[in-house]
From TrEMBL, chain A:
Record keywords, A-Z: Membrane, Transmembrane, Transmembrane helix
Protein known as: DUF975 family protein
Keyword flag Transmembrane: yes
Residues that span the membrane, as ranges: 20-41, 82-103, 124-149, 215-234
UniProtKB/TrEMBL annotation, chain B:
Superkingdom as given in the UniProt entry: Bacteria
Organism lineage: Bacteria, Bacillati, Bacillota, Bacilli, Lactobacillales
This protein's name: Uncharacterized protein
């Protein structure tokens, strides 16, 4: 009962700090959704290209640019995955530092819980639960906003990805470079759609589901450092008190 | 003033703050009630601030809570007077079954009437609950005054 009543009261009392944590959560989740979307988009593109490549014989004249295109896509996918990993590591460090500072500020409150004979795990759980509530609020804001603007989002991301991000990794700059490949060959796609495919609504939905399924890792990276730093700080304060 | 005498349960003692660590040779850590750091959660009400550890303790403490916290149950920690904060901390100490309670500087900071009343109540609590309460003060005059008016 105390937890239920106290958590909103605690958030309200430390409103400024709570808003900062909320914004950090929103910012990171937004960034991770974009990175995960780019990874899913590139994976989808790569998978589609490989399937389309199967239509041509490797010996066929003009197939080289297509192979180079696939290599370029592999490279870009690797870059996106690296960016995602780096973002997670930076966030874990940043959240850890922020949590350390927050627990130092909350020292007197933690002493109060200790004076009421609360065990360490209960104090850490209490603060982790507060952080979790803020994270849930931030997740709802970001995910609902993302789902509402989902169609525009994927369209925008597709355009940005094709026009700006893929360009340095693309050896083939125009559909005309692939013309020899299509000569005397019957396919259900054109050289233009091979280079710049258009995402259908069902594909957008499937990519959205993929991103949502992978979102648990960024969510964990926002809460686990708080739990670990909380344990360390509460334990440290308890030792200091006994000295 | 307290001077390495054996502490008897149910009694109130006075000491200078710096002497506490030298005098106390108890294995048990005393429960500290500090005027400077009152250990009150600013966002919780007087009732929630008690943070009682188990339901079993409540009936025994009920009378004390009723007597001293009745008016402040719904008031936020930030709105509590120092005397209310003191009672919350003392009840919390009793609930966690501490036998040795040290009250830092509290009487020095209160108006004389409040301090006198507080000391009378604390004396009763110490006797009723069979605990040792040590009150620290920097002013010999306060101690003498209270000894004349309350302790004797």
């Amino acid at each position: 009962m105390f937890f239920i009543k106290s958590i909103p009261a605690n958030i309200r009392y430390y409103l400024r700090q709570s808003i900062v944590i909320y914004l950090v959560d929103c910012f990171f989740l937004g960034g991770m959704i974009i990175t995960l979307s780019l990874i899913s988009l590139e994976r989808y593109d790569l998978h589609r290209l490989e399937k389309q490549l199967a239509n041509f014989s490797h010996a066929k004249q003009g197939a080289d640019p297509l192979n180079q295109l696939i290599e370029g896509k592999h490279l870009l996918l690797g870059r996106y995955q690296l960016i995602g990993l780096l973002m997670m590591i930076i966030t874990i460090i940043l959240v850890g530092i922020l949590a350390g500072q927050a627990f130092k500020k909350l020292r007197q409150d933690i002493e109060t819980f200790s004076s009421a004979a609360w065990p360490q795990y209960k104090i850490v759980n209490y603060y982790t639960l507060i952080a979790l509530c803020i994270l849930v609020l931030a997740s709802i804001t970001v995910i609902v906003g993302w789902l509402v603007l989902n169609s525009y989002y994927w369209h925008g991301l597709e355009v940005v990805n094709q026009r700006w991000l893929q360009k340095p990794f693309r050896p083939v700059q125009g559909p005309q470079a692939l013309q020899p490949l299509f000569k005397n060959h019957l396919t259900d796609f054109s050289s233009r759609s091979l280079l710049n495919p258009v995402l259908h609504e069902s594909t957008k939905q499937s990519l959205t589901n993929q991103v949502l399924r992978r979102l648990w890792l960024p969510l964990l990276s926002l809460i686990v450092p708080i739990f670990i730093v909380g344990w360390y700080q509460v334990n440290h304060f308890s030792k200091m008190r006994k000295l | 003033m307290l001077n390495k005498q054996p502490l008897r349960l149910g009694e109130v003692y006075f000491s200078q703050p710096e002497m506490i660590n030298q005098i106390l040779q108890s294995a048990e850590q005393p429960y500290m009630i500090d005027y400077q750091m009152p250990k009150i959660l600013p966002f919780a009400t007087g009732w929630d601030n008690l943070l009682l550890p188990s339901k079993q303790v409540i009936p025994a403490l009920k009378q004390l809570i009723k007597q001293h916290l009745k008016q402040v149950r719904d008031r936020l920690g930030t709105e509590l007077t120092v005397v209310d904060q003191f009672w919350i901390q003392l009840i919390r100490g009793l609930a966690s079954q501490h036998q040795l309670i040290v009250i830092n500087h509290f009487l020095d900071e209160l108006p004389p009437n409040d301090a006198r009343q507080l000391l009378k109540d604390v004396k009763q609590v110490a006797a009723k609950w069979q605990i040792v309460i040590i009150i620290t003060t920097n002013q010999e005059a306060i101690f003498n005054n209270f000894r004349a008016q309350v302790l004797n």
